[in-house]
Write a structure and sequence with these properties.
- One of its GO terms (biological process) is guanine catabolic process.
- One of its GO terms (cellular component) is cytosol.
- It is built from 16 helices and 16 strands.
- It starts with a strand and ends with a strand.
- Strands 5, 6, 7, 8, 9, 10, 11, 12 and 13 form a 9-stranded parallel β-sheet that branches. A 7-stranded mixed β-sheet has the order 3-2-1-4-14-15-16.
- The longest helix has 17 residues.
- The relative contact order is 0.15.
- It has 2 domains: 125 residues, Urease, subunit C, domain 1 (Roll); 293 residues, TIM Barrel (Alpha-Beta Barrel), CATH 3.20.20.140.
- Helix 13 crosses helix 16.
- Helices cover 39% and strands 23% of the residues.
- Strand 6, helix 5 and strand 7 form a beta-alpha-beta unit.
- It is α/β, with parallel strands linked by helices and 433 residues long.
- The structure holds guanine and zinc ion.
Length: 433
């Protein structure tokens, strides 16, 4: 047992989804507090009330800092850390030119460990406390990420990426080895400490129907696991999928036909959806993941956040590192705002911060544990400095309300805006002395 600690500052939490429930779903305290003990938040409220209720608790005063839940990145590729911001290609050429050669290196456990540690440290610097990541086809790459996450106490979801065609020699498995390796890794990591295993076919073009079928069977055997993949990111990719799966009604059908459409499914990108696909995703309660910096960087298209959310789709937000051009969920919120503007549906600051926390946690079925401040939630939180640079400060000091104060940090903030990051109540940034 550790001693309870009261963290004081501005606080922002959600009692609902601001897309569906409006701005009243957001609860802001100018002088708030959270009580943290043994990695769990035990109480949230006005600072004066909590100080009166827990007069013996030591305090950490974050001043004007805004305490919010740690960011949850719902789709990333940690092995692409070293090739982020590679110039000039669209999806398929980008995969072949930059991604596959780099992913080839992750059979080396030492290299995988080095990148996994570097990647998770970048996340903590940027205020991201949980991620759902693809690994590579190598089991070593999965062990490396879960091991590095365990050392940092982070709640992480990840899985071995499966590919048995249209990938170079050295980067292909088979239907059987994909099933066997995934099953072994699942049994080794799923539900251990804060790890969740995610069944991970990369996307239909790099799997044979036999491999998709094997992974669908694995998911049926482990229905509590998430399944992650890619869907309808670029138009040439969709045409390729149609040529590889001539019987399929559409891209989603290539997953649906093999038991890979379900409530715990996460479908990254989902930009160019047909009506049947939207209806099926909704019917199954599957989650779409918006990857805005990736969609602009690789030139994929403009995700229809306004339309999909008003239909009631479940949507998370993600960096998609390294197709995405940043490790930062602040940058991802800014890009989501810009894409919303281009579609004529600007997102409110409350919606953006909700997407990066509770929305992504909901997509990952972890919203009862992470992504919000509340009694019983795990104590993964960040403290935002809403005046982290002179340019941001001169704008936020004019703010009339919390949203005007927060929005400049969303649009212009970077890791300097993350004053502190806490994982399970433990301070990870600045690094503990
Ligand atoms: N589609 C299949 N693999 C990938 C990947 O690694 N990144 C992105 N952005 N799209 C993909
Ligand atoms: Zn991806």
């Amino acid at each position: 047992m550790t001693q309870p600690t009261l963290h004081l500052g501005q606080t922002l939490r959600f009692e609902g989804d601001p897309f569906a429930d409006g701005l009243d779903a957001a609860k802001h305290e100018t002088r708030g507090a959270i009580l943290v003990e043994d990695g769990i938040i035990h109480a949230v409220g006005p600072a004066a009330d909590l100080r009166a209720a827990y007069p013996w608790a030591p305090t950490v005063d974050h001043g004007d800092g805004l305490i919010v839940a740690g960011f949850v990145d719902a789709h990333a590729h940690y092995p692409q850390t070293g090739i982020i911001a590679s110039w000039g290609k669209r999806l398929i050429d980008w995969l072949n030119s930059y991604t596959f050669p780099e992913e080839m290196r992750f059979g080396d456990a030492d290299y995988a460990a080095e990148i996994a540690e570097r990647y998770l440290d970048f996340l903590l610097t940027n205020g991201t406390t949980s991620v759902c990541s693809f690994c590579t086809i190598h089991p070593e790459s999965v062990d490396a990420l879960f091991t590095a996450a365990r050392a940092r106490g982070m709640r992480i979801a990840a899985g071995k990426t499966c590919m048995d065609r249209n990938a170079p020699d050295g980067l292909r498995d088979t239907p059987k080895s994909a099933y066997d390796d995934s099953a072994r890794l699942l049994n080794k990591w799923h539900g251990k400490a804060r790890a969740s295993y995610v069944i991970t076919p990369r996307f239909s073009p790099t799997s044979t129907p036999e491999q998709l079928e094997a992974l669908g069977a694995l998911w049926t055997e482990h229905p509590d696991c998430l399944m992650q993949t890619h869907l309808s990111e670029q138009t040439d990719e969709i045409a390729w999928v149609k040529s590889l799966y001539p019987q399929a009604r559409d891209y989603l059908d290539t997953y649906e036909a093999f038991g890979l459409l379900g409530e715990r499914g996460l479908y990254g990108h989902a930009i160019h959806l047909e009506d049947r696909e939207k209806a099926k995703l909704l019917e199954h309660g599957a989650a779409l993941v918006h990857c805005p910096t990736s969609n602009t960087f690789i030139g994929s298209g403009l995700f229809d956040m306004g339309g999909l959310k008003s239909d009631g789709q479940i949507v998370g937000l993600a960096t998609d590192t390294g197709g995405g051009s940043s490790f930062s969920m602040l940058r991802s919120m800014a890009a989501a705002y810009e894409i919303g503007q281009l579609r004529g549906t600007p997102l409110h600051a409350a919606q953006l911060i909700w997407l990066a926390t509770s929305g992504s946690a909901r997509a990952l079925h972890q919203h009862n544990r992470i992504g919000n401040l509340g009694a019983g939630m795990e104590a993964d939180f960040v403290v935002l400095d809403l005046a982290s640079t002179p340019a941001i400060a001169q704008r936020s000091t004019r703010a009339q309300d919390i949203w005007e104060a927060l929005f400049p940090t969303i649009m212009m903030g970077d890791d300097r805006a993350i004053a502190s990051t806490y994982v399970a109540g433990k301070q990870m940034k600045p690094a503990a002395p």
